[in-house]
Known about the structure:
The protein is α/β, with parallel strands linked by helices. It has 2 domains: 3-251 and 447-471, Aldehyde Dehydrogenase, Chain A, domain 1 (3-Layer(aba) Sandwich); 255-433, Aldehyde Dehydrogenase, Chain A, domain 2, CATH 3.40.309. The protein contains 15 helices and 20 strands. A hairpin with a 6-residue loop joins strand 3 and strand 4 (34-40). Helix 3 (83-94) packs across helix 4 (98-119) and helix 9 crosses helix 10 (296-307). The radius of gyration is 24 Å and the shape is globular.
Amino acid sequence: MFEEWGVRSGHHINNAWVPGRPGVEVFSPIDEALLGRIAEATEEEVGAAAQGAAAAFPAWAALGAEGRLPYLLRFAEEIGARADAFATVEALDAGILESRMRHGIVPRAQLNIRHFAEAALTLQDRVLETAQARHLVRHDPAGVCAIITPWNSPLMLSTWKLGPALAAGNTCILKAPEWAPFSSALVAQAAEAAGLPPGVLNLLQGTGAGTGAALIDRPELARISFTGSTATGRAIGATAMGRLVPCSLELGGKSPFIVLPGADIDLAARTGALMYRNATQVCLAGTRLLIHEGIFEAFLERMGHYVARLTVGDPRDAATEVGPLIHPRQAARVKAYVDGAVERGAEVRWGGAPSSVGALYFEPTLLTELPASDPIVQEEVFGPVLVAQPFADEAEAIALANDTVYGLGGVCFGPEADAVRVSERVRTGFIWVNSFGIRDLDAPFGGCRQSGVGREGGDWSFEFFSDVKDIIVPKAPFEPSFAHR
């Protein structure tokens, strides 16, 4: 189906396409049409990718940031040159809005590469002066990095990791998501067209249980960067710890969306409707609406007004605002969560059922009248289902916000001083005040508790993808001594 774009279903190892053995079938979430069958990597193919990356590492690292810059700028250009292909492919296999791909995600993917390529130029310019010595702080490339991305935004999330990893001088093995694998082939294609040397960026297709498990157990790995479910993150972390391989794990979330007294209700309600974008298959979405009891009904009425305007439909249609769920298993999971909550007494304010658009579409849904302990309040649904709870004062809002095992993101609307004060006490990796979705590449991104380990963005990405070295030059002549001081 993707022949016109040159999309391959196999692996890309040392700048050569390897067909691989037949693996799982991939279906479009739009209409469940068969898109193709991806390869499942054998242990030999995983080994070839790891060994190729290890062999390419010394020369790529030796180029330095200035030497790598032209390659990475061309890589960004080649991604942009494939904007139509990326938009079409990710709409078909990931269900992402085609218009959002063209106008938002592809430009952001290019920026991910360019920004870190240029930022790496300053990595070695750090000197710490102390009374005794001059400390020359270097960020040396770590080695071979496994980059494992999820299906809900393959291009954006892969380039978010590849940008700093490659710019820091590492070589990479990208593991494509099995439910939305085809745009990763375009990433490899763009890298080869940009002239990245063989082995610098390899691609492996396949399942997490097969290809993914074999990859993270390779002795060549120096780093593992993963975005996905908390359960999978735990498994990756356990394997990595056995080899003492550092991991960056960006995992699930159940983020609070807090609306305080004095908030701009209309702005908050319009932003609340945005939580249904990408069918709420977004880890950082504010899926728990915590609304002050004095404005609870007024807010829900206003938000319902905006939600009613949302168009559920084919992601290739420019009018669509809410696309499909990724897979029949995910659709069944979402329906089971909602049905179970209703059986336990939840009130459906809107939605609550599959959409008539197609088998994998679900109506934007809001549930109320649920205790904080209910599974749908506590657990990540990863579908267009929000819950709303009233609170009496700031203390209760903070307690409710912190009453999950997660700590990824958050949103807080209200008078700025009040919203900042509340945000400071919410246990989360980041929180937007009177806004949503602002992402600056120099700022830290990541979660706490069961939402992950580590931070990505800016210097935090380079700290992870580098071995930080201190070269200590004394300011006074050094005299060896066994004396204890």
